[in-house]
Design a protein that fits this description.
Distance between the termini: 108 Å
Main location: membrane
Family: Belongs to the ExbD/TolR family.
CATH architecture of one domain: 2-Layer Sandwich
Shape: rod-shaped
Number of strands: 5
Order of helices and strands: HEEEHEHE
Membrane topology: Single-pass membrane protein
Subunit structure: The Tol-Pal system is composed of five core proteins: the inner membrane proteins TolA, TolQ and TolR, the periplasmic protein TolB and the outer membrane protein Pal. They form a network linking the inner and outer membranes and the peptidoglycan layer.
Number of helices: 3
CATH class of one domain: Alpha Beta
Radius of gyration: 34 Å
Subcellular location: Cell inner membrane; Cell membrane
């Protein structure tokens, strides 16, 4: 041993860094999975909505009813039974005046549309009412007719 040097194994210096390559790989795989499955989750499903018997709304004042017929014409009923044909601009003007006179909170406005009415016309009526200052709009419907055999 006199002429040969004894070699000691060198200690490697420890790294204080985190190896992020496996984490990046996992993240990219998850990203691809989510990108592929996300469009599949937003598909529409045909559902049959439940039917219910709802209670009627107790109103202190006569509500304002805006009707839309199957041809898309607007009708305004300020008092029960008095339907008057109006244009879109006239509807906006009259409702705007009623909102200013009565206030937003006290005014009850409902939209009644035929089942065969154009859906876009109903939304147009809602937009006119919103632009006139009405905050809440109710949609009217007929109560469900049940046969006595059930």
């Amino acid at each position: 041993m006199s002429g040969t040097a004894i070699r000691r194994p060198r200690k490697r210096k420890l790294k204080a860094e985190i190896n992020v390559v496996p984490y990046i790989d996992v993240m990219l795989v998850l990203l691809i999975i989510f990108m592929v499955t996300a469009p599949l989750l937003s598909l529409g499903v045909d559902v049959e909505l439940p039917k219910s018997n709802v209670k009627s709304i107790d109103a202190k004042n006569d509500p304002i009813v805006v009707s839309v017929d199957k041809d898309g014409h607007y009708f305004l009923a300020l008092k029960a039974g008095n339907n008057e044909a109006v244009s879109r601009d006239t509807l906006a003007t009259k409702i705007g005046a009623l909102v200013k006179q009565n206030g937003k909170d006290k005014l009850q406005v409902f939209i009644a549309a035929e089942g065969t009415a154009n859906y876009q016309k109903v939304f147009d009526a809602m937009k006119v009412l919103q632009d006139a200052g009405v905050e809440k709009v109710g949609l009217m419907s007929q109560p469900e007719q049940r046969s006595r055999a059930q």
